[in-house]
Amino acid sequence: MAIEGIMENVASDITSATKTLFETMIMLDLKHDSSFFEDDTQIKTDVIGMVSFTGKYHGVIALFCSKKFALKVASTMLMTDLTDFTNEVKDAVGEVSNMIAGNVKTKLTAQYGEMNLSIPIVIAGEGLSITAVNNHPVVAETTLSCFSKDPWLMTPFISSGEKFDVGLLLKESGK
Amino acid sequence: MPKVLIIDDSAVMRKIIQRNIQQSGLLVDEFVEAGDGREGLEKATANNIDLILCDWNMPNMTGIDFVKALRGSGQKSNIPIVMVTTEGGEAKIEEAKNSGANGYLTKPFTPDQLKSKLGNFLLVK
After folding, report:
1. pLDDT tens for residues B39-50?
2. Given CB atoms, is B110 within the 8 Å cutoff of chain A?
3. Is residue A135 predicted with pLDDT exceeding 60?
4. Which of A32, A54, A59, B24 is most buried, by CB atoms within 10 Å?
5. Residues in chain B within 8 Å Cβ distance of A30
6. When comparing pLDDT for B92 and A42, which is higher?
């Protein structure tokens, strides 16, 4: 099967893993849309939670979301109202990414043999305030852009009125 | 009253597990936390632990290496260990069992799934 076909199968696993996670540990409503390939230059986000995997195939599964959504998810998981973007919020985003990637990896392992997962990494941008010409302040809503040599297969989700994406980069090892 | 050691590199996950156990009605007197297998070994040997919940993928010392180290140490080597991890699949469960783990629960889990798994090792109020 061509790598694009495998990626689409994996995207279906990502959707199912994300739904299971929201039904068991996050308890927020969740809707998803069809996956699509997105050029890295189009990805703008506040927070990235990513887990890489190696084996017959290697790649990255990454959660892209706003700080507002990260706060919402962390607050729900911890059953407390968090308002500051602390390390605890980053930890929660890391665990969410880890649980999605772990579920997907189990399915990949069943089909393609043993694979190894990395520990999650979370990257969050700080809000930028830029004073533009004519003294009109401009606030950048999103502060991170993502660069990679291949397009991401993105699966878009909406929860509590906030959009987030789970992206996949996948390559066959040794090719 | 039982003392439970939770080993997970995520402080958020340690809190969630603790809260779920407290709300489940399972009898636990005290929770001890560790952020990786190495710290887990220190805490397991320094405390009178009755049950250990252990993640798999962690920095410094993985959960499976922790299980092997504790079982091979001769000290406290009979404390029940339940793996609580995103690692799933038969091969991983078998590896954990063969290394000395007594139970296995994959994340994500519901409070009922956690209670059911730990009910084999803890009494209910």
Report:
1. 999 999 999 999
2. yes
3. no
4. A59
5. none
6. B92
CATH no. for residue A93?
3.40.1550.10
Instruction: Tell me how far apart the alpha carbons of residues A79 and B81 are, in angstroms, rounded to a whole number.
Output: 27
Closest residue in B to A26 (Cα) is: B108
Chain A residues near any Cβ of chain B (below 8 Å) = 20-21, 24-25, 74, 77-79, 88, 91-92, 94-95, 98-99, 101-103, 105-106, 109-110, 114, 117-119
Instruction: Tell whether B100 is covered by a domain.
Output: yes
Number of domains in chain B: 1
Contact list, B85 vs chain A (CB under 8 Å): 102
Lookup: tokens for A153: 């297969």
The predicted model scores a pTM of: 0.90
Instruction: Provide the domain limits for residue B34.
Output: 3-118
Over residues B93-116, the pLDDT tens digits come to: 999 999 999 999 999 999 999 999
Q: B14 to chain A: nearest residue by CA?
A: A78
Q: Is B44 helix (H, G, I), strand (E, B) or coil?
A: helix
What residues make up the domain containing A165? 3-172
Q: Number of structural domains, chain A?
A: 1
Mutate to test the interface with A, among B9, B10, B12, B16 (most CBs of A within 10 A): B12
Q: What is the pLDDT of residue A95?
A: 97
pLDDT exceeds 90 at position B83: yes
Q: Is residue B82 part of a domain?
A: yes
* B68 and A CB contact within 8 Å: no
Q: Is residue B68 part of a domain?
A: yes
Q: What own/partner pairs with CB < 8 Å and gap ≥ 24 does A69-73 have?
A: A69/A159, A69/A160, A69/A162, A69/A163, A69/A164, A70/A46, A70/A124, A72/A28, A72/A159, A72/A160, A72/A162, A73/A26, A73/A28
Within 13 Å and on the Cβ side, how many CA atoms surround B6? Answer: 22
